[in-house]
Amino acid sequence: MIKNELQYEVTKDWAEKFARAIVAVRQSEERRKTDPDGWQLLQDSYQSQLESLQDEIDEYETLIAHDPNQPVVLNLDDINKISELLIKARIAFKITQKELAYMCDRTEDEIKAYEERNYHNSSFLDFLAVIDSLGIQCQEGRFYAVLDDFYKDRLVAIRQSENFNAA
Question: Residue 72: CB partners within 8 Å, gap ≥ 6?
Fold first, then answer.
């Protein structure tokens, strides 16, 4: 899962490298003739990796294109990936790690560390604070994230103070 712009750029770069590698393998007539199974296996493995990277890129681009004033609907096919819901909701709402930290009374370093480790290093209370801040709810087997007015106001306040401090 892509969690930030740096990872997004690195993933796009790797996708381009795999695309070029696929072209190079396809153009290797000698290898195709001498080792057709190996040639096909290499081509298939590169293609599989490219598709996986492209899926991650598409997902991240969908999240960053999301209208932050609209609820976020997130599917969860594995309960072990619930931490990804928090990161995806934050990205879709266009909330920075610093802003999320402010919203749930944590430090920016704590939020960064939680996201780097998919919240495995957070306490249950920290996890719940983030869930509450992002308005994560489960309805009919689907997860929704809807910022309530209290957290919208906190977000506006931090953004105004950042703009004031930047000026």
Answer: 66, 88, 89, 92, 93, 144, 145, 146
User: Are residues 99 and 90 in contact, defined by beta-carbon separation less than 8 angstroms?
Assistant: no
Q: Which residues pair with 72 in a beta bridge?
A: 145
Structure tokens at 165: 């401090």
- In degrees, to the nearest 5, what angle opens at C-alpha 130 toward C-alphas 107 and 111? 35
Question: Token pair 């489960």 is at which residue?
Answer: 138
Q: Where are the domains of the chain?
A: 5-65, 72-166
Q: What is the pLDDT of residue 167?
A: 53
Q: Which tops the pLDDT comparison, 93 or 79?
A: 93
Q: What residues form DSSP beta bridges with 137? A: 144
Q: Which of 3.40.50.2300, 1.10.260.40, 3.40.1490.10, 1.20.1090.10 would CATH assign to domain 72-166?
A: 1.10.260.40
Q: Which residue has the tokens 């396809």?
A: 26
* Span 31-47, pLDDT tens digits: 889 999 999 999 999 99
**What gap in Å lies between CA 109 and CA 27, rounded to an integer?**
48
pTM, entire model: 0.82
Residues 6+ apart with CB under 8 A from 21: 46
